[in-house]
Amino acid sequence: MKALVTGGGGFLGLAIVRALRARGDAVRTLSRQEHPALRELGAEHVRGDVADAAAVSAVARGCDIVFHVAAKAGLAGPYEEYHRANVVGTENVLAACREHGIRRLVHTSSPSVVFNGRDMEGVDESVPYPTHFEAHYPHTKALAEQRVLAANSPTLATAALRPHLIWGPGDNHLLPRLMARAKAGQLRRIGTQPKRVDTVFIENAADAHLLAADALAPASACAGKAYFISNGEPIELWDMVNRMLAAAGLPPVTRSVPVPVAMALAWGLENFALLTGSQREPRLTRFVVREMSTAHWFDISAAKRDFGYVPRVSTEEGLRRMVEHLKRGGG
What is the rounded CA–CA span in Å between residue 91 and residue 17? Predict the structure, then answer.
């Protein structure tokens, strides 16, 4: 098949492109920046913005399936920027699918679309969207996911995947941020209660996308549905953080801050950024405090049942691979 991968130059997008090319599929990608790694894999790389309807239409022409991975992540910046990238961009992808008769769309969502600020332990996809969001990213990703699922029809089969805390060799987001904060002495445990969270190794996340794509068709079991994706191995949050830091040769985080103190600090930092008009992400936000002080792990039995998702790489094996990658000088 010929697949379009939006955001193909990102951590997950590149892994999906790599997996598609490994099995012989033709791939076209859309990203705002140049990514030599995509051309090295044999992908047809097109520079463009998903918020540009004409660009999305042009790049989608002739494709059989779309993996919509592109998004604006982060916790800083005006709502309009997140809405433009995450909501308008998704609407453009849906319009291009309809225009060119593309019958399958796999959308990369996030578990944060249903995060309500409280412990989520073993929840499945029946958990509702919250009535309030503390950050623009989960809010706009929830709006995008709802549009994707509502677009499912006899002519366009859609599915949304919610991978949680993707990590592994080549990670350009989670581990670098942890390392930078650790080296600057800015990492603190939030609260003292142990909380388990789900994570997903990068190859498992890519596998899930391909498996969902292969099973997806109008009226198939996964059409019109959202799915949590993880390694299926909930682990205590700070244990996982410390193991990732150890893989990078850094000491563990041992100092902690009470949750109320962290929340007050986050409130102050957010308001300072608002008053000064700063576009830099505050060192701490209320959303991050809640994420770091609550349990969030998920039932992935629906993904196993509906499209045969089974995590191939365990957390232990993933950590071993990451250590080897970093020893070889990998970024």
Answer: 22
- Structural domain contains residue 209: yes
Give domain status of residue 10, yes or no: yes
**Average pLDDT of the chain?**
93
In whole angstroms, give the CA distance from residue 145 to residue 203.
23
How far is 182 from 249, CA to CA, in rounded Å? Answer: 11
Alpha-carbon distances of 99 from 89, 92, 218, rounded to whole Å:
15, 10, 17
Looking at residue 306, the DSSP 8-state letter turns out to be H
pTM summary value: 0.94
| Overall average pLDDT of the 136-143 stretch | 97
The residue segments making up the domain with residue 69 are 2-166+200-232+298-314
Among the listed residues 118, 267, 288, 322, the one whose alpha carbon sits nearest the alpha carbon of residue 189: 288
Residue 322 within any structural domain of the chain: no
Task: With respect to residue 172, please indicate whether it lies within any of the assigned structural domains.
Answer: no
Given a cut of 80, whether residue 331 has pLDDT beyond it is no
Distance separating alpha carbons of residues 232 and 298, to the nearest angstrom: 8
H-assigned helices in 23-107 = 36-40, 53-60, 79-82, 89-100
Which one is catalytic: 79, 82, 129, 137?
A: 137
| Residue 137: active-site member | yes
Return the structure tokens found at 92: 């453009």
User: Is residue 204 very low, low, confident or very high in pLDDT (cuts 50, 70, 90)?
Assistant: very high
CATH code of the domain in which 8 resides: 3.40.50.720
Average pLDDT of 254-283?
88
Question: How many domains are there within the chain?
Answer: 1
Beta strand 235-236 pairing with 196-197: antiparallel
The tokens for 143 are 């709006």
Q: What is the pLDDT of residues 35-87, one digit of tens each?
A: 899 999 999 999 999 999 999 999 999 999 999 999 999 888 889 999 999 99
Residue 315 contacts residue 231 (beta carbons within 8 Å): yes
